[in-house]
């Protein structure tokens, strides 16, 4: 019954979102209309990730986590590009702020919450150290190449890449992400499958959807993604003015975008952890972080061909400290292949520090 109701509203919401997009495109939105459009945007995001999850269930793990990560990244790239096209103060740092926020949310927020839920259920959360470690190493490398190095390069003043450096970073990111996907899905897929505590019994998985249901969800997923990007473009002035009215720094816009697109991903990760499938939760978290960098940076690099203005990718000192702490804590968590409440709490503490410093730098 619940599944039927969920499938019904997730089929209706993308259509309603398209109607809302057609009715409001290119118009200034008053407060009440803006709130309705915002609800339509949130509903379209939730529907998009639901349908991505249906497709993921059909194709199975570990490919399923990849489908979810790519769907979320498409939404993220669409939001970034539409807001950058709108211009305005702070648009040159929007890509950096959003990608960094996505890394911190996934590698600390979702990662820590998944471990916490898994440890609360079985006292100790078990996962595959080989696959998780490989994913974390890839995320750390991508983050350093694309977000740290621009702060220290000297050819161009400021925390920016030259055109050649940006092209190299984009190609390298795409190649590294593609290599990881090949390893995850073709060469070593067993490293990314759930492992269970000896004697523990995971919840019985639901039957996969039929091919017809998966194709239907794929079509609705595409409709929802178009709606999300279009509605974000319509709401972009309201988002930025709301951040300014709250007295928050402009970098908080990137945090809002990342929180918006990753909230459904968080729910999916928690559901997997509650089913004793912590590995799937970590695949979702690290896969989203990796896709956020490995796909967003090349897309933004390509978009700079027609986008005017500078593109600031280099992190500040506070952000680099948080990133370094995230990598160190992540390595110490992953190596044993098991985690308790403490490890989950440590990651959530780092995430809390990131949110606090984003609002009060």
UniProtKB/TrEMBL annotation:
Q: What is its main location?
A: membrane
Q: Which residues cross the membrane?
A: 32-51, 63-87, 99-120, 132-152, 164-183, 218-236, 242-263, 284-307, 313-334, 341-359
**One GO cellular component, as annotated:** plasma membrane
The record's annotation in InterPro entries points to: Alkaline_pH_Ca-Antiporter, NaCa_Exmemb
Domain Sodium/calcium exchanger membrane region, residue spans: 35-185, 217-357
How does the entry describe its membrane topology?
Answer: Multi-pass membrane protein
- Name the chain's protein: Ionic transporter y4hA
């Amino acid at each position: 019954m619940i599944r039927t109701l969920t499938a019904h509203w997730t089929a209706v919401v993308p259509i309603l979102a398209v109607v809302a997009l057609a009715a409001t495109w290119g118009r200034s939105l008053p407060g009440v209309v803006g709130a309705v459009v915002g609800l339509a945007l949130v509903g379209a995001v939730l529907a998009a990730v639901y349908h991505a999850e249906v497709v993921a269930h059909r194709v199975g793990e570990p490919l399923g986590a990849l489908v979810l990560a790519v769907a979320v990244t498409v939404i993220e790239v669409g939001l970034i590009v539409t807001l950058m096209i709108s211009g305005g103060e702070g648009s040159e740092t929007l890509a950096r702020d959003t990608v960094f926020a996505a890394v911190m949310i996934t590698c600390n927020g979702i990662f820590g919450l998944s471990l916490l839920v898994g440890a609360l259920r079985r006292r100790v959360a078990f996962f595959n150290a080989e696959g998780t470690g490989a994913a974390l190493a890839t995320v750390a490398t991508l983050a350093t190449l694309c977000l740290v190095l621009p702060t220290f390069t000297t050819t161009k003043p400021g925390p920016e890449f030259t055109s050649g450096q940006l092209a190299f970073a984009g190609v390298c990111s795409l190649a590294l992400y593609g290599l990881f996907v090949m390893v995850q899905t073709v060469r070593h897929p067993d490293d990314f499958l759930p492992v269970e505590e000896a004697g523990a019994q995971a919840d019985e998985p639901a039957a996969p959807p039929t091919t017809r249901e998966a194709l239907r969800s794929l079509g609705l997923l595409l409709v929802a993604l178009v709606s999300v990007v279009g509605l974000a473009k319509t709401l972009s002035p309201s988002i930025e003015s709301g951040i300014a009215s709250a007295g928050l720094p402009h970098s908080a816009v990137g945090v809002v975008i990342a929180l918006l697109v990753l909230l459904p991903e968080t729910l999916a990760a928690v559901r997997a952890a509650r089913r004793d499938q912590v590995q799937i939760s970590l695949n979702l978290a690290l896969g989203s972080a990796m896709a956020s960098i490995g796909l967003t940076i090349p897309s933004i690099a390509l978009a700079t061909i027609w986008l005017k203005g500078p593109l600031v990718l280099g992190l500040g000192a506070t952000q680099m400290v948080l990133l370094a702490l995230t990598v160190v804590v992540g390595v110490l968590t992953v190596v044993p292949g098991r985690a308790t409440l403490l490890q989950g709490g440590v990651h959530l503490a780092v995430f809390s520090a990131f949110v606090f410093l984003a609002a009060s730098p």
